[in-house]
## 1
Amino acid sequence: MNEVKNSDNYSEIISPDSLKTDYVTAENCRFFETPSGFLGAEINGNTYRRVILSRALPLTMPDKYICITDVEKNELGIIEDISYFTEEQQKLINGELSQRYFCPVITEILSIKEKFGNFYFDVKIGNYKKNFTVKNLNKNIRYHGEGFDLIDVDGSRYRILDFDKFPSKSRRKLEPYIY
Amino acid sequence: MNISVKFDLSPDGEYCDGILSLIGEEITAKFDEKIIFCVSIKGVREIVLRTYVGCGMIELVPEDSSDNMDNSIEVCRFSLSCVDEVGEFCKVINHYLKYNEETDINTSGFRVCPKCGRHYAKGVNTCLFCVEKSYLIKKLATISKPYISWLLFCGLFVLLSSACSALIPVLNKNLIDNYLINPELSSNNTVVQIIKYVGIIALFQIMAKLFGAISNRRANKIGGSISNDLRIMVYDKTQRLSVSSVAGKTSGDLMKRISRDTEIVKNFITEQGIYALEKVIMFIVILVVLLKISPLLTAIILVPVPAVMFAISKYWSKIRVRYEKQWRSDSRANSILHDIIKGIRVVKTFGSEKREIEKFAYASKKLADISVSNEHVWAVVFPFLTLFMGIGEFLVIYFGGRMVISGTISIGELLAFNLYLAYIYQPLRWMTTLPRRLGEVTTSLIKIFEIIDEKHEIADAENPVPADLNGDIVFKNVQFGYKPYEPVLRDINLNVKQGEMIGLVGHSGAGKSTLINLVLRLYDPDSGEILINNTNIKQISQTEYREKVGVVFQETFLFSGSIYDNIAYAKPSAKPSEIIAAAKAANAHDFIMNLSDGYNTIIGEDGHTLSGGERQRVSIARAVLRNPELLILDEATSALDPNTEEAIQDALSRLVKGRTTFAIAHRLSTLRNATRLIVIEKGKIAETGTHDELLKQNGIYASLVSAQRETSKLEN
């Protein structure tokens, strides 16, 4: 209810202080693994037996601005930068993030066929051969830094880390299709 | 029970070929012959599927689990390639846990081609990877079927025109051999004969052109009609597509398909289609004549043809990809333009014109670069192809000259042969330009048929029954999610009596608007059923049903046109007196009469010339005019100031009287007249009752009311 009061006060909404965010830090936040294998956290003295981590900027800053929520998606805090935490804590954070974000890195493109507006990829992810279908390349490509993610018709993602460093044979196959 | 599906991620997040099964009452997950999970479902409350970014997991929730589910047990992980299958697996188990009934996995929603194993997009019926290359030609042929007689007519005139043209070199040959080279062979009146030949040649020329003009004229008509049919089909389909399907496409993209792609198809039919017919006929006719004059010379001119055809076929796939890329750039530039023009007020108020100009300039330059690059490739390849193709011409001069000297053929025959060469090379050269033109039209056809062939997600029943809303609306065990594996509404059981006003209350994202979407049948429930007067909503004709439903949204959309036209949109046959009565009922009449053009006032696109309250009142008048049996008010007054809201509330209370009404409002005072309030929380009905009953319960509704009281204290 207090939140309602505050949000109706325009002078507070537009004051420069209102743009500041209080981040959780290594001092007031500690993560731990629960017996069920989930990530728990102690934040400002409160214990949460299951928390979920989400990246605010997954493409551009995957290690910064990580939101901590409970299963009901109520926000418990935001981590400004993972590197501010100890190595052991970082391992727990990254472990949870890797469970929530799956974007395998394409190591080789075997073939790309375009048929009737759909793009059929045959790729290698390490030693695993995978095929996937992308519809409407314009909408299903997310650029980040030197590379990009391709999103297939199921919503699965596949990453090209650095297009310029991609094997030249694979690059030649992909080049005509990217904007 | 014995069911199994695939999953594809190991606990370490590596790809694997896993099998998830339920045998008897035991869930097992295994890969590489290794069992990673094996637990009985006894004592399990439910199995929950969670989707994340690119992946998901399922977990068993024990009966004694808290809301936070911190003692759940992870079963397995999977990439979204398996989500449909795993989702169905969970559905079957949850159904069993809840109703103790065994069901089978429903594979109808799986989008995997049984032939090639590739996944295809939502809304597509067939695996486009496996369809034959002639797929598009067959599609186009189906659409062209009504014009078959006119196409035959065109073909006949093209044949006549080609025959006339083909005869001209023969006449030339006879003129040269009989009257110009060997005048002594002719009779005394050589000049008369020459004039006669010139006349005949001129007549054949005129006839060839005349027949050509007739066929071209008809071809233009056919092209225009086919393109018109396509345009209407695409537009018609976009109107019928489900809301989720249309939401997945940008308006710029849809507009490009409806207007420009159909135009490209028309141009191809009128310019290339008839030309192709002419050239093919000409090629066959001339080839026969050439073989008759000299089989050796004919063989010489055809030497480079196979090589050129091979080059074209190799080049074809590359040029197609280039034109696809050009189409994407074009569509992107169009979408940006459409966005900027639609959001021009936001652009201007934020002073971001420069940024937007740069954004569009970048997209436009990309498009220009790709177009120029495509044209460059063409400009380089085309001359070489035609030069190579024309090699035969040089050979004919050499070998033909020698044959004339040796007396094998006459000068007239060589001259006729040379004239025919031009005719035969024309279709061959045209074929070298074909990849470019085909590349363009194939891309457009694909985009058009993508829409036309899209599966109706919310289809009418085979024999729909008329809509009869004179009865209760009943929700029976309704479950629904925009993605079938992520339920937004669960276990909805509700009986709405005819004439009741139901107020839907709850936090944002609780599922109120989703419930309304189901009542409107914009989506179908994943399980359970909605009955309208004892008839399943799926059996009712959608058009007829929606004709009896009136909706007022928070965001009103008014078409560009007059206020009169906008109100009459609900009932085009309405008399002016009805329009005025509807406006009066909606408390809109007074402000309309204050406008100098009254009901004829033209409102700008999206009603920008009217205030928010005025637009809302026009849209209520539209709903009043329809005289709906079922009324839906989705945040109809939440964007308005209290005074305007009062005027609109007054109008709405008149509208609601005696009709079954579903109303959503964040401002709870708006629902004071509701017969019953339904509180929705996390997709379930949490509380039901009147305002007083719910206050007494001191639950979610009571806390919402008290939060709003605090706010209104601040406002006062």
## 2
Amino acid sequence: MLLTITTTMRPATDLGYLLHKHPGRVQEFGRSFGTARVFYPEADGDRCTAALLLEVDPVRLARSRGSSSPDFSLSQYVNDRPYAASSLLASALADVFRTARTGRCASRQDLADSAIPLEITLPALPCRGGSDLARRLFAPLGWEVDAEAVPLDPGFPEWGDSRYVRLALRGRVRLADALNHLYVLLPVLDDAKHYWLAGDEVDKLVRAGEGWLAGHPDKALITRRYLGRRNALTRDAFARLAEVGDDVEEALEPPVEEEPGTETPEPAETPEATGITELPGTTERPGPGDDSGLGNDSGLGNDSGAGSEPAEARVPLNTLRRDAVAAVLTEIGARSVIDLGCGSGQLLGVLLRDPALTRVTGMDVSARALALAGRRLRTDRMPDAVRARFTLFQGSLTYTDARLAGYDAAVLMEVVEHVDPPRLPALERVVFGTARPSHVIVTTPNVEHNVRYEFLAGDRRHPDHRFEWTRAEFERWVAGVCAAYGYTADLRPVGEDDPEVGPPTQMVVFGRREERP
Amino acid sequence: MTEVSVPELSLVVLVGVSGSGKSTFAARHFAPTQVVSSDFCRGLVSDDENDQTATSEAFDLLHHIVGVRLRRGLLTVVDATNVQWEARKRLIELARSHDVLADAIVLDVSEEVARARNAARPDRAFGPHVITRQRRELRRSLGKISRDGFRRVHVLSGDEIDDVTVTREKAWTDRTHLTGPFDVIGDVHGCRAELESLLTRLGWEVGPDGAVHPEGRTAVFVGDLVDRGPDTPGVLRLVMGMVAAGTALCVSGNHERKLVRALDGRKVRVAHGLERSLEQLDAEPAEFRAAARTFMDGLISHYRLDGGRLVVAHAGLKEAYHGRASARVRSFALYGDTTGETDEYGLPVRYPWADDYRGRAMVVYGHTPVPEPEWVNNTICLDTGAVFGGRLTALRYPERELVSVPAEQVWYEPVRPLTARPPARDPGVLDIGDVDGTRFVETRFGGRIRIAEENSRAALEIMSRFAVDPRWLVYLPPTMAPPETSTLDGYLEHPAEAFEEFARAGVSRVVCEEKHMGSRAIAVLARTPEAAARRFGIADGTAGSVYTRTGRPFFDTRMPELVDRLREACAPLWEALDTDWVALDCELLPWSAKAEGLIRDQYASVGAAARASLPAAVAMLETAAERGLDVGALLDRTRRRAHNAALFRDAYARYCGPVSGLDGVRLAPFQILACEGRATAVDEPHEWHLKTLGLIDSPLVTATRHRFVDLGVPEERDAAVAWWTDLTEAGGEGMVVKPASFTPVPVTGAPPAGVREAGPAGERPEDAPRPARAQPGVKVRGREYLRIVYGPDYTESLGLLRRRFTGRKRSLALREHALGLEALARLAEGEPLWRVHEAVFAVLALESEPVDPRL
């Protein structure tokens, strides 16, 4: 992978002083996974170019994580790290130009303090969010950005562009700033799982961002992405199965809400009266669905809103939905409730604050979702009184399970649409036939309302949705369940009930009849 | 000499003052693990066996241990003073809650003896008053201990204590030593004529008061011999004769129970045909009435037969009750499990216990008339309503064959129409207990295989969120290992090592099959939707499924079309295999049809990044070289890497083809996994599979090129190497080498199929010393293909890559293969869905074990 830095100041060869690297030499720097070299393809008074070429040996790269641990994936061997300007290049750059990055230069300090004409090229920059995002992140820092998408495979033009751009930056910028921009923004644009990074990333970000990050309009996005994927450092059994099935792991990830900031360092604890604290960063994004996929796919969703929502402040739909469910639980006088498909535990947090509920249980099929829920609800430091009311476990809605029985109410909030239609009868039998709580609350999107979300462009609200029902389809399903399992049903809208297309979310409250059909 | 007899499965409660010699007695007559002592438990919770402050918690622990042992069906002896009524009561309740009997053995020694013994033990520092108190309590107890609820109280004193022998008596229900064969016969209800016809059909020689089978078969009656029908005395006479002669067994039905009460003059409601029995018996001599009463009164609730593999009870029996004795076991066996509700006909709504049944024993029962007997989780109801004008049905065991004769007429009008009940069948819903947590799966060809909890959890998520209906998911393919790493220059894998490996394992002939580069696919196809409903219980009109290695369906919306086209293509198989369904192991082509997302995200992206960056690097290095900088070696290397990257791109692009709809999709089947009644993957050699699959002639189906190699003939090996070289140089992925006539051998030392193990032995099967089994197959991949596995530049670091370790992968391949065959064998034998699913799920779980993914 390659990075070039060119200047046209005079004498251009002073770049050598600023970088602390002699233009006449080829200098080598050993890395655990390969070798970095700095050399100057051109160096005269008018124009001087320094090239940083990082040779990555993927075999050594995988081994550099140490041990003969077999816990690795194929993607660690067959990956773009030897070619693309990723976090590996950023870290090599940070080390090789360590002094230059601090802005110190004993022989040319005034030059080091000044903005100079610079041109930086990266022939293959991985850029999740496309060339537009590269422009958005670099332009506010004084760069003129030329970003051109690289096609995925010229032999398969129908595949379109790759995630890489050929990036050229031109501008008058202080060299140390330029290096720090690259150091922070390369991994941010890459946004890949950082298998090879760890440690005190927060401090590093604070230092490298000094003087420019605080004023950047996309500060939140940069921070989140820079730190965001740390939790993916270790792979698990789930990821291995994705690989076995020729699936892209991300495409199988569970549909959980994962707000920005859940990875930021924890602030001093501020326990509330109930003792329930949630991790910070639960700022919610206005939008039709609270599934993370919608936001993440647009690259920006969590930071800027979903794009075509009305601008005025409004209560987010996921809040409305949780409030509606909580209100129903109060109305029916439930004392115990089980959240089937609890995801990252948003609703559980609300339920635990309700003293009327003496038993609150969350179940999800995804180990990752449960880990997120555990972290959000801080189960490791839950007071005994709360812990005694609370249970969290892995389970599945297509297997009968004695642990699901004995609750006043079961909640399936935005869950059924994640189940393949042929498997719905199994879910119905598990919930209504075997667990048989007195009440079951189900919410699901109303697909008719999707026309109100222009950006969906006919898509479903989340890529993992296996279907989205119209109001009539939902009613048909509800009627079928009632007839088969002896329940009554009360349908209610959630969110603004649009006269033409109905509410964004539809909800049903099932009540068990005493006799079986 | 005194003899004390305790039931084989029971709770034995020792009663005696401190120093009465209970521990010595227990050690002499019982195994150390069978004895749970309160002193020991006190020590466990306090580090001091005499710390009386720990007594309460010590007893909590004691009761817990006793409870666990009884649940697991183990004889347990409680070594504690138990002189107080409350202490004994808690133990009796514990025994009852696990449906086992309790016996008490009282050691009645004199106060002096006890005192002397305690005085001799320095750790028994408590004063003499303790013995006096205990002695007083014991004396008070002795008078009424027989009313405590023990089955028997054995009181021993003086020399008896030392001289006694303790024997174990079998439970009444234990007839496990009888191995049959059996003819299990459904509810007769006084239909003597039909019973005679049925016995004759079954080959019995029937006389007026007895019957024998020339092959020595034993009849087992599920109860309800009496009431409603025309000749209850005749039926009783025949069955009583058979039982007395030892050619039949009979368990009690609810009707026998009630008839006995009526004969005893108890107040019962005379209904449901009881009136007919009473009337008919009135016409019989008093001696016969008395004999019939004695016979019926002596019938027991259920029998365990054939080593525990067969259980017969009138209304069925859940597993926890097999071989147990208590009022509720008897009630379940006679009346079944009810929900407490009644239906529109006023009859009790039965709880469908068979849906939840997970036992390994076959349970055969009657009690509830059904139009057709159907297997539900290895249980079957044989009551086909003979007395209501239906049929009288028998089950031949172990043949699992149903034989029935029609009723001669409607002898009694049913309250509820016989056809009103929907037929029971294996439920499509599985229980979390079938797959959850750390598991040990018994396989006939690989022993007991351990599944770690972490792996089950990952599999649960994939299975629940993505897999097809479990009724279609009859198999998942195992992983396959490569051979030992080649030392040949430029190669990581080569056929030579594969041939050598099999030759070493004693295999003389192998088949080399072309390895198609696509996505592994399992196709389960039924000839018609009706066949699908009959065999798989899937009644939504679909007739098959095609799914991936992780159970995901191929082509969401176009799956039905693919299934229909494949069913058409497979038409020649229906006749050739005499089946109306088939499961095929295949490769679905091209690779991009399923994996395009992955190819674009991973492989093509690497290619794109390389294409964008390496030429730029070459250009910069060339400019630098012109300036005179010393970058020659680096420039050469970078040019070579650019070339490798181009080869890498070609390697993946070769397996991408245009697919529009289903056009361009092909399927390459290479094994017939199973068809009706047969697990062909277990029974048939590869030659048979390839030949039978050759009958298929369809543009949708691609043949698998193959050749057989006699490993003893060097020329044949050389020719096969040349074949592989041509294949891979033309862009093929490689080949799979398998023993030509592979017949899996059951693992010796494994428990016989059908016997449930008491529980995990805690020993990982791979730890057990066991002769290395030959791999079912190894894959030999081509040089260029390996670029997409090991990376574009792998040929540059062959030396390092040769240090790869295949042991874990090979062990995994064997375990998964054994599980896959197990699933198919269970399917072919008609085992319940949960049993098939257990093995299939285990394959998926093992696939999530960490192994080098490049192997």
